[in-house]
Specification:
By secondary structure, the chain is α/β, with parallel strands linked by helices. Helices cover about 30% and strands about 20% of the residues. It has helices at about 25-30, 30-45, 50-60, 70-75, 95-105, 115-125, 135-145; strands at about 5-10, 45-50, 80, 110, 130-135, 150-155, 180-185, 190-195.
Length: about 200
C-alpha cells in the first residue's frame, strides 16, 4: 500500500497563501537548502496529485520551465481530482523534444471526478513509491477531511501574513499528529514532518 504525503509551505501564523491567493513570500523567505529539501521530497514520490485549479495552472507552465523543480514536476506521473469536470489541457506547441515529452506527461494525467476519498483509496492500494499532494488550500482542506493522509510535510516560513487561506480551516474535530522530523534552514524556514 502506498503512503499519502501532503506537502505545503505555511506562514508562521498558519496560512498557505495571503488573502489574494499569492505565495511570493515563500520565495522571499526560502534559501537554497530549503529549496533542495522541497525538491527532494517531490523526487521521493511516485505520483503527484492535485486539484483541478492547481493542475490547470501548472500544466502549461512546467514543460518549458527550468530550475530544480522542473525535472520532478515533469517526469513524475500525475493525477488530478475535480468536482467540476475537466476538459483537458490546451495543446501548446513545444520547441524541443524534451518540452514535448514534458507536456505529454501532463496530458496523460489520470482524472478522478468522483468521490475524493474513494479515488485516494484506489491510488493508495496500488504498489509504488509514495503519493505526494501538492496544490491549493481548497484541495488540501478536502484531502485532510478524508482522514487518509499518512504524513504532513510542512515548510514553516518566518513570515506573518495576518490573514489568508489556511488548510486547517473548518476542522470539525481536532486530530493529533506525531512529530517525526525537524530540519532548520539558514534563513529560518523550519521543515516539520508529522505522522498520524
Amino acid at each position: 500500500m502506498r503512503k499519502l504525503i501532503m506537502k505545503m509551505s505555511v506562514s508562521l501564523d498558519g496560512f498557505v497563501s495571503d488573502s489574494n491567493g499569492k505565495k511570493d513570500w515563500v520565495f522571499k523567505t526560502g534559501d537554497e537548502e530549503s529549496l533542495a529539501w522541497s525538491v527532494e521530497k517531490i523526487k521521493e514520490s511516485g505520483l503527484i496529485i492535485m486539484g483541478r485549479k492547481s493542475f490547470e495552472t501548472m500544466a502549461p507552465y512546467w514543460p518549458t520551465a527550468t530550475g530544480p523543480f522542473a525535472e520532478p514536476m515533469n517526469n513524475i506521473p500525475k493525477a488530478l481530482f475535480t468536482k467540476k469536470g475537466f476538459k483537458g489541457i490546451d495543446s501548446v506547441q513545444r520547441t524541443t523534444a524534451h518540452q514535448s515529452y514534458s507536456a505529454a506527461s501532463w496530458a496523460e494525467a489520470r482524472v478522478f471526478d468522483d468521490d475524493l476519498a474513494e479515488g485516494i483509496r484506489e491510488l493508495k492500494a496500488e504498489s509504488g513509491k509514495p503519493i505526494i499532494a501538492l496544490g491549493g488550500a481548497g484541495f488540501m482542506q478536502s484531502l485532510i477531511a478524508t482522514g487518509l493522509i499518512d504524513e504532513y510535510h510542512l515548510a514553516i516560513h518566518p513570515v506573518v501574513l495576518g490573514s489568508g487561506l489556511s488548510i486547517f480551516t473548518g476542522m470539525e474535530v481536532p486530530f493529533y499528529l506525531k512529530l517525526a522530523e525537524v530540519k532548520v534552514f539558514p534563513k529560518g524556514v523550519v521543515a516539520q514532518t508529522y505522522r498520524i
